[in-house]
Structures are given as C-alpha cells and as structure tokens.
Amino acid sequence: MKKKLSFIKSLLIICLLLGAASVQAQVELKVLTQGSTRFSDVNDAGFGITVNQYYDFATNQLTPIESDAFSMVAINNNENVAGTMFYDEPNFILQAAYRIGGIWNPIGYLPTQDPSTDEYTVYGISPNSQYITGQTNIGFDYGGFLFDTQSEVLIGTFDPEGEASASYAVNDNGIMVGWVDRPDSGGTLRVPAYRTLDGEYHFIPEGQLPVLSGDNTIGDINSSNVMVGDFDLQPFIFDMATNTFTSFENPVGAQYAAFTSISDNGVVVGFAEVDFQVRDAIIYHPSLGSQPLYLKDVLADNGVTVNTSDGLLGTAISVSPNGQYIAGWVNGPPPFAEGWMVNLDDLIVLGVQNVSHNNISFYPNPVENILYLNSKEAIDSVAVCTITGQEVSNFTLSENLNELNLANLASGVYLVKVLSNGSVENLKIVKQ
C-alpha cells in the first residue's frame, strides 16, 4: 500500500511540474532593495548590469564585477561588456575597456592624449561585439570615440567644426549616435546627430535645429538603423532606411520626455519628467497605441503594482533587443539609486513573428520586391507600416493567395497588418 501511495504521489508531482512548465510566465517587476544598483543595460536573457555588478532576473541574484575591471555600462546578447579598467590605479586613472569571452581587455589612449588629463566615458558596445563607443577628449576638445575590437584600432571621432560631441550607442554597422554642439545666440545647443563609418555626421531632423535647450540627443540605435532620442523636449523615433522622423507627444502631466532605448522589434522606452528632478518611466509600441505611455500604467493593466517609495519607476534606460526586458532605476541621486527590471513576457508580440502564423503564411523574408501571402481565408486589406506605426502603403485584396509589390519601399524593417474575416494579424518583414 505504501508503494502504491508513493507511486501516486510521484505521479501527482510530475503532473504538477508538467503543468507548471506549460503555464506562460507573467509580466513581472523586480525592484532591488540595495542602494547603488541602478541598471545600465539588459539583454534578451534578462541578464543585466549595474555599475559594478551582474544581475540575473531569473534568480534575482547580483554578482560582483571581476576584480580586474572597474565599471560596466553596456552588455549584449553574447554577454560581452563595455566598461572601464584601471590605467594607473595608484593615481586613479581609468581607461576604456571591454570584456569578450569572459576576459577584460584594455583599450588604452590615443597617441596624442595625456592620460593624466584626458578621460574616457564609455557608453556602448555593438550587438556583434565589434565596436565600443563613448566620449573622450584631447585637452578642451571633446568628441566621441570608436574602438574596433577585431582590428584593435582606436579612433577619436571629433566634430569637423570643432564643437563638442558625444556618442551614446553603436550598432553592427558602426553607426554611432549621440549629439553634436552647434553655436547659437546663447552659447551652444546640442543637436541629435549620428556618424557613419565614412566619417560623415548627420543631424536629425534634417535641416532643422532645436529651439529649446534639453538633451537633444539620439540615445540608441537598433539593428535596423532605427534611432530614438529627444528633440525640443519631446521623444522621437528616426528610421534611417525611410528617412522618417516621428515626434511624439509627452504623456499627460509630463514637462519633458525622452526615449532612451529601442529593441529590434520596435519596443521603445525612456522617461518623462513629471516634476522637478522627478521622472517616471515611459514605453511606446504601435500595439500599445499611437503615443508613449507611463510604464507603471501598462504594468497596472496587467496586474502588477509598482512598489517603489514614490509609486514611480523613475528612468527606463534600456530595453533588451527582443523587447522582453526593461531595466532602469528609481528616483533619487543616480549613483545611489535602486535598480528595477521588468519582464514583459509575451505582452508585446507585434513584430516578433516572422515565419508563419495561424491563418497566414508569407515569403520570402527578407523580401526584395514581391511578398507572397497565403491565407486560409480571404484577405480583406493589407497595410504596410514603418516600425514607428506610420502607414506607407495599403492594398485591397480578395484572393487566398496574394502578391504584394513592395518594390517602391526603401530598405528597412516594416510591419504588415493583414485584415482577414474581422481579425488582424501582424507580420514583421525586412525589405532589402
């Protein structure tokens, strides 16, 4: 009898485990209780970094940085990291550095630099780990820098007109994004700018300088060359492939807002200033609406309460490339602020599917000219939108097998919304 009960108990445990495995994870917020744990970045696995600790969302555990490194600022899906190491520890002189394959490597200084007076502020590492970027200076001349981890070549990227500049992120194409100063009647004014590998600087929006003083910067760029930032105290998205600049309204009650990070499937995060030196995290995606929302409201709609001291999330600084994880820190002095991380799970699924769907399949992807749709039911209409949600083309169809001529679209990532029998399916395509 005991053997029989033991077998039944074991069977019940197995069934419970199998049942638990089949249940989808839920939207979840974790706020760290330790001070000085503000997050700098997070990857697709929910593995993030603070200034000097690694963090695993699944286990909610912090691990100290390696002893031969000093600080961290960016991490990619290969868990390669950009940060700093000591150049001269007794005199507390730091240098840019990076970790690849678990090993930290120093970047050093340009031949014309003086390590005792010139500095490096590291900001980004490309997804393929080839490029490291940030800001540096030669005397009073401040600009960006780009380090190629493959060739081990370090270059200073200084504005040809001699004004200050900085680079906050870089993608696999070596496109650096940030800002460049431009003189105005009151001194200098930051302008959102990006630099390509040919050394050319490009201002956005094209032909227009900011009127209001603010960050006025590009904060991030994804693998499809879509950039985010702020311009004249409002958040924006710029699609380099389509040369489309889209400015967004600030959320209700916000005096100023900025986008700081964008995923590969178009999830954008940032912050809104809701009071003097008080921020609240924001999120945008076409599936959530046409304008950015407070992240705490999206969480509340999904049964998650923000349990910070002021009920706000402060600054959202990073979203993982797959759009699942968001990391940031609460309000307060950033060096001492507590970090937080959100797992959106499958809350935002628009754009993450690219092969087949329940009712519609499509090919080829990437597409050069003709996209073929194969539907179980008649297709009523099709709209093609940029990743920012702007419609660029539409079709009215009636056959089960349909062809979309996309030859007139510029190269880039697009969202295809297919209306069939009263339901909408969203497809993500890459136009070559």
From TrEMBL:
Q: What are the alphabetically sorted keywords of the record?
A: Signal
Give the residue range of the signal peptide: 1-25
Please tell me whether the keyword Signal is annotated for this protein.
Answer: yes
Which intervals hold domain Secretion system C-terminal sorting?
Answer: 363-424
Q: Name one Pfam family in it.
A: Por_Secre_tail
User: What protein is this chain from?
Assistant: Putative secreted protein (Por secretion system target)
Q: What is the lineage of its organism?
A: Bacteria, Pseudomonadati, Bacteroidota, Flavobacteriia, Flavobacteriales
